What does this fold into?
Amino acid sequence: MRNLILTAALLLTTSSQAQLGDLWNKHKDKITKGAQVAQSATREFTEAEEADIGRVVAARILQTYPLSKNDKLQQYVTLVGNTVAGYSARPTLEWHFAVLETDVVNAFSCPGGFIFITTGALDQIDSEAELAAVLGHEIAHATQKHILKEVKRANTISAAQDLAATTSSGSFLTDALGEKISNLAYEKLFTTGLSRRDEQEADKIGVELANAAGYRASEFLGFLDALHELEGESEMKVLTATHPGAADRKTYVKPLVASDSGEVLAERWEAWTQPAEASARK
It folds into this structure.
């Protein structure tokens, strides 16, 4: 009886294998193509591809807000930003920092190290240490590839097919794929926001970077207080829609910045920003 059972099992196994073989031969092209699509959708972007994506997203932001014409302010933000980025997980990335001329209070991080901060946000800052922590937050979004993860998570099969085809030919972004990525990133930056977990991670790493660069990271709490006072104002519409509330952020940031060590550099902040603001009003 046992032999009969084993014989029957072997026959069933052989039959199943034959059926699977027929299915493979019939659909192997589709199966192989599907596997290639899945692989292209989940693989890591190269640094060059990341920069290409960053340029597309940055261009979309610059269609929304113009660059500030205050060259001195642009230089200052770049100097502080590069100082903080030098202590990040990706110090050799080609970082770009720029100031946007708008009363909207916000800052934006694009893949590939393109970081923007608005003049509205700078108006709420009182020291270089605060600026360092705010820029550190945006730098963290780039080093942790938060936008890129959203791009990969939202890729449709057709987008992945485009990716597989274009990378093999040496051309990464088609117009169609570039537009898809730009629209997704814009929605995340201006409408829906990143996940609460990503924002908390950026706050945590941001104050760690400011501290590592020699700044008093606890000054970031003053920036959060300023945001809390502004909540409900029209200039805060984008930030409040895409970030946790300032009070909530302060709750989990405060234990991270218990030390009062580090430089504040409020006077240097004033020296770089106040004369420029005064001349811009004339």
In short: The chain is about 70% helix and 5% strand. Residues 8-13, 27-40, 156-161, 276-282 have pLDDT under 50 and may be disordered. Residues 216 and 261 are 6 Å apart (CA to CA).
